[in-house]
Amino acid sequence: MKLYYVYILECSDKLLYTGITNDISRRLDEHNAGVDKNSFTFKRRPVEVIFYQEFNDVNQAIWFEKKIKKWSAQKKRALANGDEILLKLLAQCRNESHSRNKGNNN
Length: 106
Fold this sequence. Notes:
3 strands
């Protein structure tokens, strides 16, 4: 069975990078070796894996990667640290127009 990994790297400048691979060790080595000079991590080496999730379905892995790429750095760090309470708090909608944030006019 082929496995896929969605991972979050912390770069030397503390910025985060999210990616997907089928070989996390090889991919980390590629990031740290600077294989692609146009990559986000090239000038931010060394990088360190702070989170990874294993999948046996590539479509699920792609879906999850796309989802967390949109997250804030704070939310990604909460995921990496296993802080479920903070993760749930950061996931809550804070828009003024959200029903939870509207006054009760009854």
